[in-house]
Design a protein that fits this description.
Length: about 230
């Protein structure tokens, strides 16, 4: 070590001693200070781990509810919104998903596994077909307890139905599922079974929640659940 290096090291030691003395005068416990610094690093790592959300899922992934349904395949094969956009409107965002229909209550096969004509009830299939790929982006959970519907007829005599599903933030990726009937109540057993299956695989599932839409077209009774994927 040359003379210049020696002088530099001595100066650095003196500065270190001065700083240590000043900290002690201020009442700082240097040992605790080191521990707190380490804790902050550890806590930061823990929080980063806790805040990790489930990875977004591809809309074509079989885990996405509706992706393999015949009714959803029929909806897409017939053109989806590009075909039925004059009758079905969708407004979606991080706080809610709203789908509405205006047209004949029956006679058209829009999203039905076997080409059925219970048109206005098929709006619930379209809800699943369109909302779940949106939810698959992650960090959104449907609030099934507060789903609202509005129904009636417009000025031209067309039947109308709108379904609004509130959305709340979540660290997980959720889906919405349903079973329902038009002018009959299918019960909630199928949705109960689905929830049990999800929970047995380690997921979270909420519901079923019954929701009724009543209008000039009759009564639609639906049972909704929401679960992680």
């Amino acid at each position: 070590m040359n003379e210049d290096d020696k002088i530099l090291n001595e100066q650095l030691d003196r500065i270190k001693d001065i700083m240590m003395t000043m900290l002690k005068k201020l009442g700082v416990d240097l040992d605790q200070l080191d521990d707190k610094s380490s804790d902050k690093v550890d806590n930061k790592d823990d929080k980063s781990s806790d805040n990790k959300s489930s990875s977004p899922v591809s809309p074509t992934d079989p885990k996405v509810v509706g992706s393999q349904w015949k009714s959803c395949k029929a909806w897409r094969e017939k053109g989806g919104l590009s075909k039925w956009g004059d009758k079905i409107k969708i407004d979606k965002g991080s706080s809610q998903f709203r789908i509405s229909y205006s047209g004949p209550s029956s006679g058209l096969s829009i999203a039905h596994a076997a080409g059925g004509g219970d048109t206005i009830h098929q709006l619930y299939n379209v809800l699943i077909c369109e909302m779940n790929p949106f939810l698959a982006q992650g960090k959104m959970k449907p609030n099934i307890n507060n789903i609202t519907t509005q129904s009636g007829k417009d000025s031209t005599g067309k039947s109308t139905l709108s379904i609004t599903v509130p959305i709340q933030s979540s660290d997980d990726t959720y889906q919405i599922d349903r079973r329902g009937g038009w002018n009959h109540d299918p019960g909630q057993s199928k949705m109960d079974e689905k929830c049990k299956s999800v929970k047995s695989d380690g997921g979270e599932c909420f519901g079923p929640v019954r929701n009724i839409a009543q209008g000039p077209f009759g009564k639609i009774t639906e049972y909704f659940i929401t679960h992680t994927i």
